[in-house]
Amino acid sequence: MGSLEELVAFLARAVVSNPEGVEVRSWRDEEEDALIIEVHVAEGDAGHVIGRSGRTAEAIRQVAKAVAARRGGRVLVDIVA
């Protein structure tokens, strides 16, 4: 089974114009007791990943949270342009 980072990267690359410009970084935050995933996209693609009223970004977050919850963990996804 793939990692959450790979899942988030796959989802982000599916909605941007420049999939090569998507970079995903992650680390474990002990204070939050969660995996933090940062999605970096090209400046022109920020709107595609965020979507209207943040709907696309929220959908990506919800999918990641659902997978993390099934695995018994917690995840926070940040979109960075």
UniProtKB/TrEMBL annotation:
One Pfam family linked to the record: KH_KhpA-B
Keyword Transmembrane: no
Predominant cellular place of this UniProt entry's protein: cytoplasm
Top-level taxon of origin: Bacteria
GO CC terms of this entry: cytoplasm
This protein's UniProt keywords: Cytoplasm, RNA-binding
Localization: Cytoplasm
GO molecular function, one term: RNA binding
Functional note: A probable RNA-binding protein.
Family listed: Belongs to the KhpA RNA-binding protein family.
Protein name: RNA-binding protein KhpA
Organism: Thermoleophilum album
High-level lineage: Bacteria, Bacillati, Actinomycetota, Thermoleophilia, Thermoleophilales
Gene name, Swiss-Prot/TrEMBL: khpA
